[in-house]
Amino acid sequence: MLRKRNVVVSKDYQYIVSDEFHYFLTESKFNNNTEDSFNLIISESEKTRMFMSATADAAIEYFRFKHIEHRSYNVPHDYSYIKELIFYQNDKVLEKFLHSIPKNQKAVCFSKSAKKASTLHTIFKDSLFVCSASGTSREKKYLDKERISRMLMEEKFEEKFLFTTSTLDNGVNLKDKQIKYVVADIEDIDTLIQCLGRKRIADNSDKVTVIIKNISDKMIKKKLEDCERIINPAKYLMDNGSLEYVKKYRKYSSPVIYDTVTVENDKVEKVINELRYFKECYDKKFYEEILQEENGYMKHLQTKLQQNSYTILDDTYEKATLSDYLDSIVGKQLYKEEQEELIKKVNIRDSRNRLQRGCRIINEYFIENNFPYSVKDKMKNNKRKLDNNEPNPNYTKTYWSLAKYN
After folding, report:
1. Which segments of 155-273 does DSSP mark as H helices, in order?
2. Contact call for residues 192 and 184 (beta carbons, < 8 A)
3. What confidence tens digit (pLDDT) does each residue in 3-50 have?
4. Residue 140 in contact with residue 192, Cβ under 8 Å?
5. Is 247 exposed, middle or buried (0-12, 13-18, 19+ CB in 10 A)?
6. Residues 400, 332: contact at Cβ < 8 Å?
7. Where do runs of H (alpha helix) occur along 66-215?
8. Which pTM does this prediction carry?
9. Considering only Cβ atoms within 10 Å of each terminal Cβ, which end of the chain, N or C, has fewer?
10. Phi and psi (nearest 5°) for 23?
11. Got the DSSP string for 157-191?
């Protein structure tokens, strides 16, 4: 409507209420029109404009950035319903975990892509798949619209799993005490928090385990570079004007810069989508802050979700797998090949990524990680013959032996 003609909100209305108003910023990354609707609402200065969101921090920062006069009211968040906060790195580890969820419990899994959500839906038969019906994703052909409609009406799903994109991040309630797990592979923090909020808490006994995919420092550095790639040309345009910008970035297509025709002299000018530009700057600052601390992303979410601690799912599974292997070799004589296998399984590396092979280092690792094992080396096989009276091929050879403590 804004593109086709001038839009003015009728004088009959005294209030304009924008619920979930983080939308203007979060969706600016893939929707260039959020700036137009935001500016229209702001321009209605004779009306009272109310903006509401559970994830308002970035949007309120934008108000300050634009010097938009406003009053702010805050209701404190309560995350006491979170039973446990878990992070994971490997998609296969999550898959294993989902297989272990008891029969009478359900899980909602938010994915950043329809392809990921659809793949999990294929693996776990007792599940419902949701993505945007109006989007460009090929996976939308797998939507069961009748079942989705029933879920939205009843505010619960019959299946064990719901695999969805962030298309369900707003305006959807899931009221079901059987939902014990909420999983999120969502990178934008505001969108992630919105996804967690889809599960509505019935009472104090209604607790959920929250499982979030970690973003590695390497990936965060890449995201930081992506932000800078968008910010720097826009900043150059602000500092030097359209002519100089076109000279320098003639062939560069920026997602935050577009052409407009000036009314006064009927000329084409380069202008910046300020909402999107601000969002990129806001994200850049966030990435810089979390890179200053080891495990910064996980620690940030731990604080935001008011949790005293968190665990890493991959560590739990690796520990379980390693324990199974160690149990299988307890008391055995470990010669050169078996020693090499143990070294590779434990996989201790120094700062230069060199595999550590010494018994002392392995035993220190066991102590630090609460593994009830220890390795003895330089043990010598003094048996000339085997139990069947055959010559012992390992006679006089040295070996390692693994012991387990109760």
Report:
1. 189-196, 217-248
2. yes
3. 777 777 888 999 999 999 999 999 998 888 899 999 999 999 999 999
4. no
5. exposed
6. no
7. 91-99, 114-123, 145-154, 189-196
8. 0.76
9. C
10. -50, -45
11. -SSSEEEEEGGGSSS--B--TTEEEEEEE--SHHH
